[in-house]
Amino acid sequence: MSIKLGVNIDHVATLRQARKEVDPDPLAAARVCKTSGADLIVMHIRQDRRHIQDEDLFKLRKAGIHMHLEMSTASDIVALATKVKPDSVCFVPERSGEITTEGGLDLKAGGKLIEKAIAKLKGEGIEVGLFVDPEAASVRMAKAIGADTVELSTAKYAKTLGKHKQEFELERLELAGYLAHELKLGLHAGHGLDYHNVVPVAQIPHMACLNIGFSIIARSVFTGLKTAVTEMKKLINSR
Fold it and tell me: What pLDDT does 99 receive?
């Protein structure tokens, strides 16, 4: 079974917001990604609206493109999601001032709030995932509070240097993946994946989808978006 590719187009909007212009248009980027092999379009609606704007979500939804929305559990963001009705969402931690998401959710501290948000969105018919570190406790708790899917954070794997250390981080991902499969959770992964490190993660048993953004958008500056997406899709299914 081929692995799905979710392409995060946040940084297309980052470029647009630098000038507060209409171009480059995230919807146009989403259409190119879709025709180039992307299975879903990923957008992170941040509370500070540094890139994706509310209007972008409604435009993409109206266009009928499969939308995977990354979001915090803030009440106004959850309310927005119930209006947009994306195909799926992934709750991610979000801290003011961070450059990018810094790790998985703390389900122990925020479990009750997250559980309430999961129930609300699932009640709207939206598939819900949780962005978690590759740890057994986090995977088990994700199941306990009602998640449909876990997206394993590959941040540590992506940043680790040295063969043995990388193998250790990859093993953590594999073990968490086996547990997710046993618990009947969908298995996704992402964060920091690029054209040089993605293949071993794609080869993890039961992996269903990889969500990748920055490296694809960065590569597209030189190759064009169509080529960047096509190359990544080919890589993740190269086994």
Answer: 74
Domain residue ranges in the chain: 4-236
Rounded to an integer, what distance in angstroms lies between the CA atom of residue 11 and that of residue 67?
16
Give me the architecture of the 4-236 domain, per CATH: Alpha-Beta Barrel (3.20)
Mean pLDDT throughout 97-124? Answer: 88
Rounded to two decimals, what is the model's pTM?
0.95
Residue with tokens 């609300």: 120
Mean of pLDDT values over 33-47: 98
Task: Quote the CA–CA distance of 61 and 172 in Å, as a whole number.
Answer: 36
* pLDDT > 90 fraction of the chain, expressed in percent and rounded: 92
Residue type, 220: S
- Catalytically annotated residues: 44, 70, 191
Peptide bond into 86 cis (omega under 30): no
Q: What is the DSSP string of 56-99?
A: HHHHHHHTT--EEEEE---HHHHHHHHHH--SEEEE----TT-S
Mention every residue, 6+ apart, whose C-beta is less than 8 A from residue 223.
231
